[in-house]
Amino acid sequence: GKGDAPAANGAAGKKPQVQVGVVTATTGDVGVLSELPGRIEAVRTAQIRARSAGILQERTFREGSDVRAGQLLFKIDAAPYAAALESARAQVARDEAQLAQSLAQVERFRPLVAANAISKQDFVNAEAAYKAAQADVAAGKAAVRQAEINLGYTQVTSPIAGRIGRALVTEGALVGQGEATQLAVVQQIHPVYVNFTQSAADVLQLRRAMESGQFKRAGGGQGASVKLVLSDGSEYAQAGKLLFTDLSVDPTTGQVTLRAEVPNPKGELLPGLYLRVRIEQAQASNAITLPQQAVTRTQQGDTVSVVGEDGKVSQRTVKISAAQNNRWVVLDGLKAGEKVMVDGFQKLQMLPPGTPVKPVPWQAPGTP
């Protein structure tokens, strides 16, 4: 290509300057991203438990499938509960017969007590017997209702819509005897929550930067936008929104918990999944952004190579923060208009230190 320097023009000709790719630092408003560790959690988790004791007769769902709220999942042997319900209904019939008899007694005694043909006490006793019979019928009806509920519990249904895991018991097992045996777990995973943590120091620094006007809040008050980075480094297609930041700092880790909600229509994000969360919490005004390969990051600090007016290359320490599209935001250390080296580091290593170079504008790969 035209960027290749021709060979030295004979012994007399001086070597042409080595070309290096540079970008000119320009300022603009840019979102400042934090990348934080996070974990997926189901929005709702329901433990399916046996509320009636008995032998598990049938499982009526496919493990790992999606279930509706109210869908039948298990059947427990219902025969003892059906018998108990019949018995309760028979008791009500007996109590109603007693009630009819005591009412007839009261009606018969009413004219007699008015004519003083029977004692007042007999009439009071008859009325009390009638009221007791009414109470017996009411109690019997409540017992029938309870027996119906117990019979209903033999059909175990899902309280929520979601995805069901494996069955924790098999047909033939005795369940619900003594404690409510767990049978399965249903989790609602569209959308999902992402719980992630940020160090309290970073939160404080961000707030200070916002107060000083160096940063302004992202999203215009609608909550910061959240992107997920999966374990293979790819970005998840759907963006989420930040729901809240916890008010307290965990004393053991010094971290603040944040939670976001992310759509999960295909069910790719599974509860417990560990991933990285990219969140734009603020916008840096008048910040300079650089391609990531322009910055050398070490334990001692972050540096860039600046090409001066005279073509000499010098190292400069900068303060950076992450930004969108694989760029770094330079918070400190660079001025607008300076030329920063992005490409040609290998060529530089061949040259003696202090050799002038020829800066040419750098094009990002893939740009026309």
Low-confidence stretches: 2-13
The helix count comes to 4
Distance between the termini: 15 Å
Report the mean per-residue pLDDT as an integer.
84
Beta fraction of the residues? 35-45%
| Main sheet: strands, sense, barrel | 16 strands, mixed
Radius of gyration, in angstroms, nearest whole number? 39 Å
Number of strands: 20
Mass-distribution shape: elongated
- Quickly give the structural class: alpha+beta
Helix content: 10-25%
Q: Spell the H/E element sequence.
A: EEEEEHHEEEEHEEEEEEEEEEHE
Protein described:
The chain is of the alpha+beta class. Strand 12 (240-249) and strand 13 form a beta hairpin. The chain has a 16-stranded mixed sheet that branches. Strands 6-5-3-8 form a 4-stranded antiparallel sheet, with no helix packed on it. The protein has helices spanning 79-114, 120-152, 200-211, 345-350, and strands spanning 19-24, 27-49, 54-59, 66-67, 72-76, 155-157, 162-164, 174-175, 182-199, 215-217, 225-229, 240-249, 255-262, 274-291, 295-297, 302-307, 313-323, 327-332, 339-343, 358-361. Helices cover 24% and strands 40% of the residues. It is elongated, with a radius of gyration of 39 Å.
Q: What's the structural blueprint in terms of helices and strands?
A:
Elements: E1 19-24, E2 27-49, E3 54-59, E4 66-67, E5 72-76, H1 79-114, H2 120-152, E6 155-157, E7 162-164, E8 174-175, E9 182-199, H3 200-211, E10 215-217, E11 225-229, E12 240-249, E13 255-262, E14 274-291, E15 295-297, E16 302-307, E17 313-323, E18 327-332, E19 339-343, H4 345-350, E20 358-361
Parallel strand pairs: 1-20
Antiparallel strand pairs: 1-19, 2-9, 2-14, 2-17, 3-5, 3-8, 4-7, 5-6, 7-9, 9-13, 10-14, 11-12, 11-14, 12-13, 14-18, 15-16, 16-17, 16-19, 17-18
Helix pairs in contact: 1-2
